[in-house]
Amino acid sequence: MHNPQLNKNGELAHLLSIEGLPKAILTQILDTAESFMEVSAREVKKVPLLRGKSVFNLFFENSTRTRTTFEIAAKRLSADVINLDINKSSTAKGETLLDTIDNLCAMHANLFVVRHASSGAPYLIAEHLQRIGRHDVHVVNAGDGRHAHPTQGLLDMYTIRHYKKDFTQLRVAIVGDILHSRVARSDIHALTSLGVPEVRAIGPETLLPKHLDKLGVHVFHDMEEGLKDCDVVIMLRLQNERMNGALLPSAGEYFRHYGLTPQKLALAKPDAIVMHPGPMNRGVEIHSAVADGPQAVILPQVTFGIAVRMAVMSIVAGN
Amino acid sequence: MNILIENGRVIDPKNGVDRSNTALYVANGKIAAIGTAPAGFVVHERIDAAGCVVCPGLIDLGARLNSIEAELAAAVAGGVTSVVVPPDADPPLDEPELADRLVHRGAEIGKARVLPLGALTLGLKGERLAELAGLKKAGCVAFSQANKPVTDTEALLRAMEYAATFGFAVWLQPQDYWLARNGIAHEGEVSSRLGLAGIPVAAETIAIATLVQLVRDTGCRVHLTRLSSAPGVALVHRAQQEGLPLTFDIGVHHLLLSENDIGFFNPHARFCPPLRTQGDRQALSDAAAAGLAAICSDHTPVGADDKLLPFGEAKPGATGLEVLLPLTLKWAEAAGVGLSDALARITSAPAAVLGLASGELAVGSVADLCLFDPAATWQLTPEALKSRGKNSPWLGYPMSGQVKATLVGGRIVYQR
C-alpha cells in the first residue's frame, strides 16, 4: 500500500503519522531542528525558507499551545500565517471538510496545519490533494483524534536525544491514558523506530488499547514495577471526562496508583528525565514537586517544539 | 410468452443439476422444461446462452432501496430477482400502509421482487411493538430492527413471544448496544494502531447468547443478519446443533475483507458490523463454504458527501446488488468452493431462510432466472453501476462474472 505521506521519491510530502516513516527521515527532522535552535537565540529570529508561502492553521478542535507554537515556527520561517478557527466558521454553515480545503487552495495555500477530532482526517485531506493534483500543497498533522500527534512525538524525541544522546540504550516508560492519547501512539512509533530497546506502557487496563504488545510495547499495570530503572518517564494528560465514570472511579484513586510522585520517581534511574505534553493536571497525573523538580524537562520540550515544527514545515514544503 | 434459453450451462444447486449445453423452456412465467421441449412448445423469444451459466435468480437477504427505481434496476443488472428490504428506511417501515405502498411501488416498477421486512418495534426504537400481523398482511416477510438495537431485554422477549404466537420470523443483527455504541472499528490491533474506537467481538457474542436463550424459551424463529466474528459463528452453530430454529447470513464483503483493509483510514472499509480479523474472516468463509449460512449483499448506497469524510464520520456500508455475484464467485474461487455450491449460497440458501419456493429450477417453479458469463470481466467504476450508491472498496478493481440477462416471473427484466 502506498504511504500517502511520502512522494514518488520517498521524501516527506506530508507529515501525517510517525508510523511507517523511515528512521532516516526522523533523524533528518531532528538534525534540521537542531540547526534551527540557534535561530531562536538570535536577535532577529527569522530565516527566509518559507518566504512568500502561506501556512493555514486549520484547527477543527481547540488548542492553544500547539497552534501557537506552529504559528511561531511558521513566522520564524518567514511564512504568512493564517489562523482559522473552523468551529466558528464554514463547517458550522454546513461546508464539508474537503470543500473547505478546496476553497483555501484557491486562496493559494501552501501548507495546512490540521487538528481534527476524528482519527485520520489529515489523511483524507492529503489523499484529496493528491487526487486533485495539488502536489504543491502540504499537510502537517497537528493531532487527529486518538491517532497521531507526530510533531509532539518528534519534539519528545528531540528532547530525549538532547538529554540522553543515544536512543539504543534506553528504557522509556509512558504512563497514563494511552487509549485516548495520540501523543502516546506517536511516541511509541518514534521510540521503536529510533531503536529504543524497551518501551513500557503503564496504566490501568481501562486506559490501555488492546494488543499494545503488537506495537512492541511492554505493558505494566503496577507503576512502581514499571518505573524501575527507566531513563525517561513520559506522563500523559488525563482528560477530565475520563476521571469519574466507567474507566476510573476518581481522580484521587488514579493519582494514588498512577500519579507521579517523588517517591515513585525515585524508582527510576537517578538521572531519569520527566516529560509531559501539557497541559498538566497537577495532583492528578503528576505531583507538583515532580513537575517543578530538577528532573522535569517539560518547559524545554515546549521550546524544542518550535524548532521541530520549523524543521517539519521547511522539509515538507521543500519537497 | 414462451422463451427458449439455449446452449447454456444450467445449474440448479438445490436439485443438484449442472448440465452444459442445455435448453431451458419458459412458459406462462414458469419453467416448462429442461433439456427437451415440452409438447407443442412454440418459441416466442430465443436467448442464446452459449458460454453462460443459467441459474435461479439471486435472492438477496439484505438491500436498502434508498432510491427504489435505481436500486431495483441495479438488482436485476446484478442478477438479483428478489430483494429483502430492511425496515430502516425513512420513515421506518412500521405501519402496514407503508409496507403496502412499498410492495405496490415495487410491483409497478416490475424489476426485482420486493420482500420487505417490517419493523419489529415502532420507529425501530425497541420499545413498543409494531402491528406485526397487519404488516404481514401488507406483504412483510418477517420482522426486523435492521441494525437498531432492542436494549430492553424484556421488550425483546415479549416481541419474540408475540412473533412466535403467529409463527412470524424475527431477523436481528446481533450487536450489544452498550458495547458497540461508541465504536467505529473492530477492537483489535488495527483500531489500537489507528486510534479508532473499538467494537469488541463480545458485542456480537453477548447479543447472540441472549438471543439463543430467548429462542430456547420462546420457540421464536430467528434469523441473525450479518455475522462478523469467529466466536459468533461458533455460538450460532452450537445452537443450531441443539435444534433451535436459528439461521444466519453473512455480508459478502465480510467474506473477502478484514480490518487490515482499513489501510490508511479508507472510509469504504467502514461497515456495520465492522470488518474484523483475518481469523474472523476465515471462520465466516468456512461457515459459508460448509453451507451453514446464506450470503447477502447488505447493499447500502451511500452518497459521496456521506462517505468522503474522516473514517469515523463516514456512513458505514457499501454498494452491493451489482457485485453480489462477482464477489461471491471471487470468494468461492479463493475458498475452493465449486460454482454450484457458491450459487447455492445466493439462491437456494436464502430461499430456505425465507421459506420461499423460488431459488430453484424445478419444472413448474417460477421462472426467476439469472444468466451470466462467468468468464467475462469488467471494471468496477461508478459509471458501471446502475445503483445510486457508488460507494465500494472495490472501485477500480476488475470483477469476474457478468450478468447477461435476468428474468422475473418469466419476463425478461434485464438484458445486455
Structure description:
The complex is a heterodimer of chains A (319) and B (416). Helices cover 38% and strands 14% of the residues of chain A. By secondary structure, chain A is an alpha/beta fold. In chain A, the strands form 2 sheets. In chain A, strands 7-6-5-8-9 form a 5-stranded parallel β-sheet. A 4-stranded parallel β-sheet of chain A has the order 2-1-3-4, sandwiched between helices. In chain A, strand 5 (171-175), helix 6 (182-193) and strand 6 form a beta-alpha-beta unit. The two termini of chain A are 21 Å apart. In chain B, the strands form 3 sheets. In chain B, strands 1, 2, 3, 4, 5, 16, 17 and 18 form an 8-stranded mixed β-sheet that branches. In chain B, strands 6-7-8-9-10-13-14-15 form an 8-stranded parallel β-sheet, with helices on both faces. In chain B, strand 6 (58-60), helix 1 (68-77) and strand 7 (80-85) form a beta-alpha-beta unit. In chain B, helix 12 packs across helix 13 (339-346) and helix 13 (339-346) runs parallel beside helix 14. The model of chain B has no long low-confidence stretch (mean pLDDT 97). Classes of the chains: A alpha/beta (319), B alpha/beta (416). The A-B interface holds A 1, 3-4, 19, 96-98, 116, 118-121, 123-124, 127-128, 144-148, 182, 185, 209-212, 214-215 and B 187-189, 191-198, 263-265, 267, 305, 308-313.
